[in-house]
Amino acid sequence: MLYLLDTANLEAIKKAYNFYPMDGVTTNPTLVSKEKREFLSILKDIRKIIGSESMLHVQAVSLTAEKMVEEAFYLNEVIGGNLYVKIPVIPEGIKAIKLLKSKGIKTTATAIFTAGQALMAAIAGAQFVAPYVNRIDNISGDGVGVVAEIVQLFELHNQDAKVLAASFKNVQQVHTVSLSGAHSITVNPEIMDKMLEHPLTDWSVNQFITDWEGIYGKKMTTLDVK
Ligand code: G3P
To answer: What is this structure's pTM?
Structure first.
């Protein structure tokens, strides 16, 4: 399982990379716009924080294949590192994914709502496909079910593309897509924190410290006692 953070917020990225085993960052035009700063500075700053090896997924915003391809080359040149260009699964996007595959540029097919879209994107040559779990749930669909079907289709048809499940509103959605075999997830900073939270974990840690300090003294650690 690969963990990615779905944000363009630098403080959130610093925090997640400090504490958690992160594999990358995903952004989209909405997330970048929220930062209200120059686009390139944001992306370059993210690259500085996460390093060149970590995955950075950045979305092209053109609506024609030729322009998407142009954007993909440009983004690779100016941001660099382990970059994936996110391309929506509209017909022009599938064409762009095919072209970019032939030119050795890595892509993530995005805005996926059905397993069929994901399979076509994989066959076209995308490295990752990003189904939007919560947005599917919000239209009375079964987001986790779609992810499970994609995993199954990729196995059945020997596709190397990986599932990057996206759009989560709660930890249970993350848990169930993980069980269904999704290869990676991208979550917002709040969900990333919530994935660890449990009141009994906090209670247990506090109890251990209380018991320990009762015998060995306040602020003492195993380094300080015989
Ligand atoms: O990056 C795309 C996806 O994560 C969207 O998530 O939370 O806006 O549905 P959300």
So the answer is: 0.96
- Residue 67 among the catalytic residues: no
Q: What is the pLDDT of residue 66?
A: 98
| Residue from 128, 125, 64 nearest 100 by CA | 125
Best residue among 135, 136, 163, 171 to mutate for probing ligand 1's pocket (most ligand atoms within 8 Å of CB) is: 135
Structural domains of the chain, count? 2
We report the CATH number of the domain holding residue 91 as 3.20.20.70
Cα–Cα distance for residue pair 60/87, rounded to 1 Å: 6
Domain that holds residue 206: 196-226
What DSSP letter does each residue of 98-165 carry, written as one string? Answer: HHHHHTT--EEEEEE-SHHHHHHHHHHT-SEEEEBHHHHHTTT--HHHHHHHHHHHHHHTT---EEEE
The alpha carbon of residue 1 and the mean position of all alpha carbons in its chain are separated, in whole angstroms, by 11
Of residues 195, 202, 153, the one with CA closest to residue 176: 195
Place of tokens 């040559």: 125
Same domain as 189, residue 172: yes
pLDDT category at 118 given cuts 50, 70, 90 is: very high
Closest ligand 1 atom to Cα of 135: 9
Measuring from atom 3 of ligand 1, which residue has the nearest CA? 167
Q: Whose CA is nearest to atom 7 of ligand 1?
A: 167
